[in-house]
Each structure stands twice: as C-alpha cells, then as structure tokens.
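Record 1 of the preview.
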Amino acid sequence: MTTLTSPHDLLAAVPFLVGYHPTNSLVVIALNGETIGMAMRIDYPEEVDLDQIDTLASHLVREGADSALLVGYVPDGVLDSEYLLAPIREAIAMRGITLRECLEVRSNRWRSTICEDEGCCPPEGSPMPSHEESRVAAEQVSEGNPLPYENLEELRESIAPLAKNSALDKELDRISGIDYEGEEVVELQREAALAVNDLALEFSEKGICQTLPLIALVLVRLHDLQVRDYAMGITNEENIDSMWAMWRWLLKSAPEGYVAPVATLFAVTSYERGEGAMAQRALDRALEDDPKYALAKLLRRSFAAGWPPSSFAQMRAELHPKICEKLFG
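->
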C-alpha cells in the first residue's frame, strides 16, 4: 500500500485495506514507520466494551506498530462518537503508540477528531472525497489490485455458490471416500495430494479447471484432514495469488456438503493476503455448510485474537514437510 499523506489518502485507502467500502464500522490500522500493517475492522459498537477496546489496542502491539490510524464510520442515530473514540485513543496512547489520525465519517462527510483547526476540520465535517479520483485508488489499480466491493453484501456475493452442476454431482458420486479401517489409507491420501497438485497446476495455466473427475476427487478427499492440511501447505509467497484465486473458484463451484474444507483453505489464504473481511465471510460459508467444522471454529478464534498473517507461513514451514514425509516417505 502506498504512503498515506493526508486524511483523503486514508479515506481512500481503507476500502482497499478491508476489501469493501465500510459502513457502521470501526477501523484500526497499524503502522510501522511508513509501512502499513494489518487493518482491523469491527462492527461499530453500540456501547463501550473495554475488553474489546483492549483487544484492538493489543493487536497493534502484536503487530509491532509504532503508530496507528483510526476511522469511525458512525451509524445514523449516533449523535456523538466521542463516547467510543476517546477510550480507544486512550488505550492506544497507554501502549506507547502514536495515534497519527482519528477520523469520524457520517452522512458522507468526515472530520478529524484530533485536529483543532476549524479552518481545515470544521465541526460539521467536510464532504467525502471521490474514491475513483484519488491518488491511492489510481496507484492500487495500476498495481493490478481490484477495486473494493461497494459493500459487505457485494463481498459476500463474490463467493456465493454458482448454479448447480449436475455433471459434477455425477462425478462426485463416483469417487469413494477413505475407509480408515482399510489398508490403503495412505495410498488414497497420496492420490488426493497429487490431485491437489494437478488441480493447482491446471488452474495456474488456464485460470480454470475443466477436468471434472479431478475436481471431484479433490472435493471428496479434502474431507480427509491429512489431505486438507497438505493442500494448505502448498501455498507459498510465489503462488499465493494463484492459490487464492483457485480456492475462491473451487469454493463457488463446490456443492453443499463439500464446502467447509475449501472455505477454510480460502479463508487462510485470504487472511494471509491481508483480506480479513473476505476471510471471515469464507468462514461463514464453512460453518453454514458444517456448523461443527473444527478448523473453521479454530480459525475464527485465531483471526479474532489477531494472529499475524505471517504466522500461517511459519506454520506451513514447520508442518508441511512432516505431512509430505507421511504421505510420500
């Protein structure tokens, strides 16, 4: 993300950081020098929750932030945002972190709550700048980054299921799961791991996979935890964008009953790319498909606790060689 030099830059950057144009939200952005770290968004609280405020401030410490930015997208009906913004500013200051800007956005107007110059920050606020004409948006688009979704519902729709594919359903019926009482468990897991590799290769070359038996094999065998964790481990810095696109495509294609493993893989990849809102929506889809899916519940807690995205790369580096050893010897 580009350097933010003004409130206009900050307002233009937030949608790119959270993935959509937020409303009724509180956004906290970690900074280390001029480098932008994680952007944390929560629903705008109706009441002050000191534990929640402490968690937000602790996330900044965990991110190694030396300064922070705060933007409150105030809901209609909230007359004074200071009941919430003031204790957050205090919690950030208590941790030795400089708050570089604190903006209040309401009714398509914004104002700084820490600027005392009414010439540049009048009490009634200033009109919201045009995102399309901003320097930040132009730089993001020039770097190949997509424009943010207009709202949270549009973001949800971006990973909504596609129309039912009867041909894929027939292929799924032909694929057997893994009989853990049998003698071919590792062989079947190995077959599935190689299928994941083939799927990733075909997708990277074509931007889609049209080999229905291959797709079906992957969807069925991802129910196996060893196969799922192997699939999680093949992501790296070089292929993360391609893997993100592949899991997103497969998530939209997966029929009911096959969604949860794919959704969690997409959630991890999204979170690691800094797309926290997309990661949360993916977990929604996982738990809608299987309310008891353990990894989705674990990821929900991990994301809420503010695990740094880099922690997933570290876990892969530690666990993937062990999984490969078990599957391939």
